[in-house]
Design a protein that fits this description.
- By secondary structure, the protein is mainly beta.
- It is 0% helix and 50% strand.
- The protein is built from no helices and 15 strands.
Length: 191
């Protein structure tokens, strides 16, 4: 485990890798799945954390989420993206868990594909879900509540920024936050 953010009235990383968080916007601590969680209002909120120990070649991200609303556009629960205008596609090296429609369909972006897997599971407002994404040298699996939902191939995940976002897109723009409660977010450097 290289990142463990419990959100127990702080943004500390309990993993020992010191990927402590910095708060952006105005998410507030509320009752979460376990103890406290962070409630994002969908308006510029994020927690920026370090990527010390996280690997581009393989890893796992797991989190608890309780959606409180959906919009016709991306709302990120977890986001990492490298933005470089010198590339034909300036958004690369994605690790993304998000929704992108008013119905709450769960989406995955990985590597060079923002829409790698779309509408893989319907999320409901007010219900907690455990979501995990594992990647390993070109193969990925997404899970909801412990059950594998989709498995497939990806390409283009070769580098990481020094930071990622919990609750937003994962690069300098912070305009795609989620609306809901996040809790018990974990990152591993193995699938």
């Amino acid at each position: 485990q290289v990142g463990y953010w419990q959100f127990e009235n702080n943004l500390q990383d309990s993993s020992g890798f010191n990927n402590h968080g910095t708060l952006g916007g105005n998410p507030v601590y509320v009752s979460g799945k376990y103890g406290q969680g962070l409630d994002y209002d969908g308006l510029g909120d994020y927690v920026q954390v370090g990527t010390n120990g996280v690997l581009a070649s393989q890893g796992t991200v797991a989190l608890w989420v309780k959606p409180e609303g959906f919009v016709a556009g991306p709302q990120y629960m977890f986001g990492h993206t490298i933005y470089d205008v010198t590339y034909t596609n300036p958004y690369t090296n994605r690790i993304q868990i998000y929704t992108d429609d008013t119905a709450g369909g769960l989406d995955i972006g990985l590597g060079d594909n923002h829409r790698l897997a779309t509408n893989i599971y319907p999320l409901n407002i007010g219900t907690y879900y455990h979501i995990a994404l594992k990647w390993n040298n070109g193969a990925y699996t997404a899970y909801v509540n412990g059950a594998p939902i989709i498995t497939g191939a990806y390409s283009g995940l070769t580098a990481l920024n020094s930071y990622l976002h919990i609750g937003n897109v994962g690069y300098y723009s912070i305009d795609q936050p989620m609306n809901g409660v996040l809790d018990d977010v974990r990152a591993y450097n193995y699938p």
